[in-house]
Write a structure and sequence with these properties.
heterodimer; A: 121 residues; mainly beta; seven-stranded mixed sheet; 0% helix; globular; B: 1 helix; 4% helix
Chain lengths: 121, 110
């Protein structure tokens, strides 16, 4: 079955960077984009961007341009989301999700369990 | 600021039916497809409905989706305590080139 398992939970100081990993299994890793979404405590979901594990191509939400880098390693079926220059506003649960094109639209059909990143001095 | 507007909360008794609305503020989104997601604390979010009204694999038929014009609706019948969760609608905004989600609706099964 499709699974996305995340790791990288952390407490980081303001100004630091965090790297969250997302290991995929149960499907052809290079056949699907991976999306990243976050949820700040008490707030809704916020889209961050996606990566095409096949080509390494990425698209980032404008809000995170310059601070986020998404990469992938096809040898171990893992994608990474690196967020730099952290502030307390980046304290959130970070999710990866598989992107599936239904024929009509792109959706997030399977999600990782989420990783809490806390930014605090 | 979200272009998808959901009620902050809804509630109903076990066994009853509830609907959650998702109002789309942009005409660009009105022609696109809405999906619905269930978030339970401590678990991976789950896709319920995609392309407005299609149930994802393994989702019971108690869950349904519909869309009319610029408003989408998630319906849940035969409510169970296990349905208590936060529900989000989402779609791609072609004018902003971003994925957008509603603010989320907390469902309480009384």
């Amino acid at each position: 079955q499709v699974q996305l398992v995340q790791s990288g939970a952390a407490v980081k100081e303001p100004g630091a960077s965090v790297k969250v990993s997302c290991k995929a299994s149960g499907y052809t890793f290079t056949g699907y984009y991976v999306q990243w979404v976050r949820q700040v405590p008490g707030q809704g979901l916020e889209w961050m961007g996606w990566i095409d594990p096949n080509t390494g191509g990425t698209r980032y939400a404008q809000k995170f341009q310059g601070r986020v880098t998404m990469t992938g390693d096809t040898a171990i079926n893992t994608v990474y989301m690196d967020l730099s220059r952290l502030t307390s506003d980046d304290t959130a649960i970070y999710y990866c999700a598989r992107d599936w094109y239904t024929g009509s639209s792109d959706i997030f059909d399977y999600w990782g369990q989420g990783i809490l990143v806390t930014v605090s001095s | 600021q979200s272009v998808l507007t959901q009620p902050p909360s809804v509630s109903a008794a076990p066994g009853q039916k509830v609907t959650i609305s998702c109002s789309v503020s942009s005409s660009n989104i009105g022609s696109h497809y809405v999906s619905w997601y269930q978030l339970l604390p401590g678990t991976a979010p789950r896709l319920l409905i995609y392309d407005n009204n299609k149930r994802h694999s393994g989702i019971p038929d108690r869950f349904s989706g519909s869309k009319s014009g610029t408003s989408a609706t998630l319906g849940i019948t035969g409510l169970q305590t296990g349905d208590e969760a936060d529900y989000y609608c989402g779609t791609w905004d072609s004018s902003l080139n971003v994925w957008v989600f509603g603010g989320g609706t907390k469902l309480t099964v009384l």
